Each structure stands twice: as C-alpha cells, then as structure tokens.
C-alpha cells in the first residue's frame, strides 16, 4: 500500500501532541520505577553514561539521539572513538575484486560439517578497503541463479583484526560454514557458502563493504567483554581476542587490554570447536584477563541430564555474569544462529531473577546504553 508524502506529513503532525504527552507519562513511570528498584537503577543509569562509548559507533540513527542527552558531558570524547569507521567503501554495483590467499579447514577429525578459514588479499584497491573489528563484508558469488541473474550478495562477519592475519593491514579473513539442508529428499548446498568453501588460492572474488557498527569494541582498555558464540558466530570474537592478546596487535594498536574477556563457545563436538588452540593459548598466557567456557552439546550434559548448550553455561555462571554486568564498563556480545537468542534470553531471565532483576526491563536498558550487542542470522 502506497502513501503520499503530504498525507504522511499531515498524519505525523496531527499525532505530535499525543506523542509528547505519551513520552512524558513514560518518563514519569520510569522515574518511579527506578526509585523503587535501586539495583536496576544502578545498572541502567551507570551503564547509559559509560555505555555511550559504543553507541556513537552503533547502527543507531538520529532517532536515538534523544536517549543520550542525559549523559551529554561524556559524549564529545566518546563519540569521537567511532567517528571514522569505514562503511560501504565498495558497493554491490562496483565491488572490490580481491584474490584468495588461503583457504583451509578449521575442523578436526570427526567433526560435523565443513568450516573453512578463508583469507583475501585487499591490496591494490583505490580506495583501500579498510575495516575494523566487529564489521562484516559482502561476498558476491560468481555465476548466475536459475533465472540467469547474478547471485545475491551475502554478508559474513569478519574474523580478522584490521591488521589482518599477517599484521600488514592488507588482508581480510572469514570463517565460513557450508550451509546444507534437506529438501524433497535431496541435499541442498548453500550457494555462497559452498562457493567460498571450495574457492582456491589465486582465484578472484567480488567483495563489498565493510558494513556494521553494532558489534564494535569499546575503546576502553579496562572494559569487560562477555562473548556468547555458537559455530561461525565465533568470527568477530576471534578478531576481538586477537586484538586483546596477540603481542603484535597490542604493539600496533598501542592498546593493552586490562579488563576481563570471557568467551562462552557452543559447538556440537570438541572437533567442531573453532580456533580452540588459539583461545587455550590466550587462557594460559593471560589467566587474569581471559576466561574460556565451552558448551559441547553432544559430549557434555547439563544439570538436568540433557545436552549442554551455551544457555546452560550462562545459568551455571549467572552469579559471576551479573556481577560483571553491574559494572558499567561491561559489554555483552552475542553472535551465531538466530535460534540461539531465545535460549540465551531465557537463561538471562532466570539469572537476572536470582539477582532480583527483570531481564525484560534490563536488556533494553543495556541495549540503550550501547552495552548489549547482537548479530545473529
């Protein structure tokens, strides 16, 4: 259904008095609510002030500016942190053409499926395709679809830091699982994921982007980072952890992470744990700054005797997680299949309840404060 601009404008103006009055009622309700719930007020008000560090670099538009006026004194320095994030340097109609430098399996013997680590050379771009940790790039598969049209672009979370796996700032890496599903008794392979998993070093590839500001890291060296990932949702987390704990990264960034990073990683089998040896190394080298908790569904059991999923680990460590959340410098990152969200929400709700909090109220406050970051697909 189409609407003319005149009708939309007239309708919008007619509702302004009602909207203003409604907002006033909400503000009164929230003030009463926060007064009645000191612990929730502590998390939400402190978090909004400190959390705006990432809000300036989020996908929020001007619609969110009214939410941050209360913390105006901290905005000038915080906003500058993510002011120059590259976005859409290359668009679908004029993609960058890179070359594959490596493509290798991330799985161990006995694993389920096919997951590859793929790196592309970004040299020679004009302008240079640059990105930061937490962003995504688009891939345009070669060939055409059944109708003879070019394949649609697919977005993938970047698994490398802005300096790349070679620390030279001219590559980008992805962590890709081949999509497979059954239809009418046949196994269907995902178009782009299969294309990427099978691509050979030296081949050219069309890349767009980068895109996304939702998953950016805060610049604060003392921040706490809780990461919840399943499968290839580990991609941005791998980039974060390399930035935090790889010596060359720390030197290049002049950024020495001093907070606590806690990764909750979900996988069906031990052989499916991605980048596991790297994370175990960080855990050994930085025991005071890094926790690594695994949920291996087909090999571990939860307290009820069922399969161990990432939400079960959240419940298991609820006390420690919410102690961190009470700190306004704590950010939570969630990445993986969209189906993981309900389970995480349920676990967070149970954990919050044990602290006398309502997760349905707390999560929007964390989101508004720029401390709750979600990228699911």
Can you offer a commentary on this structure?
With 377 residues, the protein is α/β, with parallel strands linked by helices. The chain folds into 2 domains: 96-211, Elongation Factor Tu (Ef-tu), domain 3, CATH 2.40.30; 224-376, Nucleotide-binding domain of ferredoxin-NADP reductase (FNR) module (Rossmann fold, 3-Layer(aba) Sandwich), CATH 3.40.50.80. The chain has 12 helices and 13 strands. It has helices at 5-14, 16-36, 38-55, 75-81, 191-198, 234-245, 247-253, 276-285, 310-316, 318-325, 340-354, 359-368; strands at 96-105, 115-121, 136-140, 154-157, 171-177, 180-183, 186-189, 204-211, 224-230, 261-267, 290-296, 330-336, 372-376. The strands form 3 sheets. The chain has a 6-stranded antiparallel beta sheet. A 5-stranded parallel beta sheet has the order 11-10-9-12-13, sandwiched between helices. The longest helix has 21 residues, at 16-36. The protein starts with a helix and ends with a strand. Residues 1-42 and 44-80 have low confidence and may be disordered.
CATH class of the largest domain: Alpha Beta
Helix content: 25-40%
Q: From the 3D coordinates, which CATH architecture of the largest domain would you assign?
A: 3-Layer(aba) Sandwich
Rounded to the nearest angstrom, the radius of gyration is 22 Å
CATH superfamily of the largest domain, by name, is: Nucleotide-binding domain of ferredoxin-NADP reductase (FNR) module
In the CATH hierarchy, the third-tier topology of the largest domain is known as: Rossmann fold
Q: What is the number of independent domains?
A: 2
């Amino acid at each position: 259904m189409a609407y003319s601009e005149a009708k939309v404008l007239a309708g919008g103006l007619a509702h302004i008095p009602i909207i203003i009055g409604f907002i006033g009622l909400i503000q009164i309700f929230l003030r009463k609510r926060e007064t009645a719930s000191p612990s929730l007020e502590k998390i939400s008000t402190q978090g909004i002030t400190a959390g705006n560090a990432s809000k300036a670099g989020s996908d929020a538009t001007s619609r969110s500016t009214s939410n941050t006026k209360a913390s105006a004194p901290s905005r000038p320095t915080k906003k500058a942190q993510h002011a120059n994030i590259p976005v859409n340097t290359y668009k679908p109609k004029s993609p960058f053409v890179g070359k594959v430098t490596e493509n290798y399996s991330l799985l161990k013997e006995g694993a389920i499926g096919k997951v590859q680590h793929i790196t592309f050379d970004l040299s020679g771009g004009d302008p240079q395709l640059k990105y930061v940790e937490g962003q995504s790039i688009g891939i345009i598969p070669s060939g055409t679809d059944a109708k003879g049209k070019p394949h649609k672009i697919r977005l993938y979370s970047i698994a490398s830091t802005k300096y790349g796996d070679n620390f030279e700032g001219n590559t980008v890496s992805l962590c890709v699982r081949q999509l497979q599903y059954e239809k009418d008794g046949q196994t269907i392979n995902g178009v782009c994921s299969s294309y990427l998993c099978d691509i050979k070093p030296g081949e050219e590839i069309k890349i767009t982007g980068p895109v996304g500001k939702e998953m950016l890291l805060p610049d604060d060296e003392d921040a706490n980072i809780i990461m919840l990932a399943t499968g290839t949702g580990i991609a941005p987390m791998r980039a974060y952890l390399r930035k935090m704990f790889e010596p060359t990264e720390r030197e290049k960034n002049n950024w020495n992470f001093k907070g606590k990073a806690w990764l909750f990683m979900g996988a069906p089998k031990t052989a499916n744990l991605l980048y596991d040896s790297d994370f175990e190394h960080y855990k050994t080298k930085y025991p005071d700054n890094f926790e690594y908790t695994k949920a291996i569904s087909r090999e571990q059991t939860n307290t009820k005797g069922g399969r161990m999923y990432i939400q079960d680990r959240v419940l298991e460590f609820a006390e420690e997680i919410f102690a961190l959340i009470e700190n306004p410098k704590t950010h939570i990152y969630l990445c993986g299949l969209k189906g993981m969200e309900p389970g995480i929400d349920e676990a967070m709700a149970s954990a919050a309840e044990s602290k006398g909090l309502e997760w349905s109220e707390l999560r929007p406050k964390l989101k508004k404060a720029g401390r709750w970051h979600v990228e699911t697909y």
